[in-house]
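thought: user wants a sequence for this fold. calling inverse folding tool.
action: design(structure=
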């Protein structure tokens, strides 16, 4: 098989440990016992099994630097595809100031989180954030990668939270059409090789990959696969990455051009796996027409074999908002569908998708900027939001960006979202600009039931602020991080202890620039995802190719 990273050096380094040897031996013994008790049968793939494990080191993988074009022109910078160097940094914080927490760029020495915080400037590979358990509980750490490019093909803010590795990763976003780039980066932070399989779906169904979609990723290394080279001319895509023999992190670098005009660069990060209910927070929009270039879209895929009927609810500043044409969507199995977000009032929303069959979901938002000297029209900045697990958790604020938390109290069970109050203003609350929160004294007191959410801000000196915020049930509340004070590096969100509501939330990040705002959406590391259970999948190869 052709190495998708030919010409790119493989990197090795220290990485997080996997399951203990005792667990592996225990599983092996179980397999032997079954083989003795039952007669041999025809070999077939064994699905991933979920097992309980004792708390181990918390391992998060932070995306590496942007994949730069390999044909950048030399000479006059006006003709360079990336005329300005990306400003890239990884940051991390620890809620208990553990002595073991550290950031480690693949192939480099660890950088300890001093006083509970730390950062790495200009990393040349993915970074692993790792910390040992504290008092028998998994360590609570979070981190973020940010890449800022203010001009050229890769113009944009490409930011993402450091994420837990998994044996099954779903990426909903991107395109392989002409003038689009979609670089899939797979990182193996473990101590054993990972046997990786890539599946891609497009508008017409599953895509046959030119390279077969399988490869090995060495321990402590990363591999890059250019999807336009193996799945060309797909206007919209969704990607699944599965791993045997280890767990991996994966993300997609998505960028678009219109001639010489940059149309946004961002990272498509992992969302939740297929389910009949999906929640996508962090959808902040400006007022647009339905077919406007910056309208944004909700992306859906039914990866199974049965067609589905789905409905979409948008929970906005004043409660439920109808998305025209999305009350009863026919979703053909295996086909990637985009639903326009155009026509919505400006504000922050969370999408709730309910389907008759399991679906995966993500959303695209956009901002129009000013035209540059060589541009044929206005520049565009785009950001992808992934579906997320609700609940309490942590998020790091990307370096150099203003952050706004979007907090949504999603009713559960038979309790539907309350209708907007008839006395509420018909004018929607404008979206905060560059992370600014509207004046709290100018906000009307919430009408109807609310839930209390606790926000705890962390800085170089540990906890720097704590505040309780009332979030109206069935609504989305934007909250500027700067309201908690200066020097905030990360935020802990404590969800209400209430079975009747799920707290779904994300961090919208923005960097101001003369050519227009640069934006990104970061999903939190929620406590519900803590590694007290692990997926184990049978490997099919031995050794490295």
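)
observation: tool returned 545 residues.
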């Amino acid at each position: 098989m052709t190495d998708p990273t030919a010409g790119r050096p493989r990197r090795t380094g220290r990485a997080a440990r996997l399951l203990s040897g005792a667990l592996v031996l225990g599983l092996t013994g179980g397999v032997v016992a079954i083989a003795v008790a039952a007669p041999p049968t025809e070999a077939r793939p064994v699905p991933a099994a979920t097992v309980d494990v004792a708390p181990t080191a918390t391992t998060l993988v932070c995306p590496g630097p942007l994949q730069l074009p390999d044909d950048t022109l030399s000479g006059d910078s006006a003709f360079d595809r990336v005329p300005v160097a990306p400003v890239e940094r990884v940051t991390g914080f620890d809620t208990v100031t553990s002595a073991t927490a550290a950031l480690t760029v693949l192939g480099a020495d660890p950088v300890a989180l001093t006083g509970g915080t730390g950062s790495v400037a200009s990393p040349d590979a993915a970074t692993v954030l790792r910390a040992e358990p504290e008092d028998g509980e998994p360590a609570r750490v979070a981190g973020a990668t940010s890449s800022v490019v203010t001009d050229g093909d890769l113009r944009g803010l490409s930011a993402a939270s450091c994420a837990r590795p998994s044996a099954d990763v779903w990426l909903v976003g991107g395109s392989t059409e002409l003038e689009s780039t979609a670089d899939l980066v797979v990182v193996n932070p473990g101590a054993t090789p990972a046997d990786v399989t890539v599946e891609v779906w497009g508008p017409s169904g599953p895509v046959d990959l030119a390279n077969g979609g399988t490869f090995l990723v060495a321990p402590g290394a990363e591999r890059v696969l250019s999807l336009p080279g193996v799945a060309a001319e797909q206007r919209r895509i969704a990607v699944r990455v599965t791993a045997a023999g280890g767990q991996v992190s994966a993300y997609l670098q998505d960028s678009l051009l219109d001639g010489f005009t940059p149309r946004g660069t961002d990272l498509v990060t992992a969302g939740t796996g297929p389910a009949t209910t999906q929640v996508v927070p962090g959808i902040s929009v400006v007022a647009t027409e339905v077919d406007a270039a910056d309208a944004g879209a909700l992306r859906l895929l039914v990866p199974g074999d049965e067609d589905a009927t789905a409905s979409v609810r948008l929970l906005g500043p004043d409660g439920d908002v109808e998305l025209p044409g999305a009350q009863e969507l026919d979703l053909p199995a295996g086909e990637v569908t985009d639903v326009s977000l155009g026509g919505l009032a400006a504000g922050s929303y969370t999408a709730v998708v309910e389907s008759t069959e399991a679906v995966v979901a993500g959303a695209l938002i956009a901002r129009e900027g000013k035209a540059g000297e060589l541009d044929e029209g206005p520049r565009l900045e785009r950001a992808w939001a992934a579906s997320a697990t609700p609940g309490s958790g942590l998020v790091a604020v990307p370096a150099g960006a203003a952050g706004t938390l979007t907090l949504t109290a999603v009713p559960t069970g038979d309790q539907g979202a309350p209708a907007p109050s008839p006395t509420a203003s018909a004018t929607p609350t404008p979206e905060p600009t560059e992370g600014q929160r509207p004046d709290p004294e100018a906000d009307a007191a919430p009408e109807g039931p609310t839930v209390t959410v606790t926000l705890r801000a962390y800085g170089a000196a540990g906890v720097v602020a704590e505040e309780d915020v009332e979030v109206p049930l069935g609504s989305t509340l934007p909250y500027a991080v700067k309201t908690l004070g200066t020097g905030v590096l990360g935020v802990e969100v404590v969800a209400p202890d209430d079975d009747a509501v799920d707290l779904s939330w994300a961090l919208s990040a923005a960097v101001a620039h003369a050519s227009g705002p640069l934006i990104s959406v970061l999903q939190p590391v929620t406590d519900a995802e803590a590694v007290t259970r692990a997926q184990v999948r049978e490997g099919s190869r031995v050794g490295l190719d």
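thought: summarizing for user.
answer: Here is the designed sequence. The first helix runs from residue 21 to 37.
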